[in-house]
Amino acid sequence: MSTPATHAIPPGMHTLTPHLVCEGASDAIAFYKKAFNAEELARLPGADGKLMHAMLRIGDSTVMLCDDFPQWGSLGPKALKGSPVYLHLYVKDVDAAMKQAVDAGAQVTMPVADMFWGDRYGQLVDPFGHRWSMATHKLDLTPEEIRQNMEKMGGCGAPK
Would the N or C end of the chain have less CB density within 10 A of its end CB? Predict the structure, then answer.
C-alpha cells in the first residue's frame, strides 16, 4: 500500500503564517469573521474550553490563533500592553473595509489617506490588541518616485 506524498508546506498554506495569541480566541474568531470576512477552517478546544488552536482564512491567507496561556508564557497583546507588530491586509476598497472593521468593534489609529508610496492606507487596533494596517494599491511607482513623494512631505527621516 502506498502512502500519499506529504508536503513540507501543506496545500493552501504559505511559507509565512501569522499565529496570534488572543485573550478570548473564540470571541476573536467571531470578530475576524465580522470585521474581515474570515472563514473558519479549524478549531481545537482544550479541556478547559480555551482554544488550543484555530485556523482562519482571510482573503487568500491563513491566520492561526489560540487563547492565551500565561502558565506557558503564551501572552497576547493585552497582557504585554500592546504589540509592535502590524498584520497588513490588501483589499479592493480600503475605505469600505476599514468601516466594516470599525463597525465590528475595531478602533482606528490612523485614518485612511492616500500615501506617498501609492497606496490608500489606514491602521486600526482590534478588540484583542492586535494591530492591523489596510490598503488598496492605487499607483505603481518607481523607488525614485516614492522617494521624491516622501521628500515632498518633509522627508519622514529618510537619508538624503
Answer: N
pLDDT tens by residue, 10-46:
998 999 999 999 999 999 999 999 999 999 999 999 9
Say how far apart CA 157 and CA 160 lie, in whole Å: 9
30-84-67-98 Cα dihedral, nearest 10 degrees? 0
C-alpha 138/C-alpha 119 separation (Å) is: 5
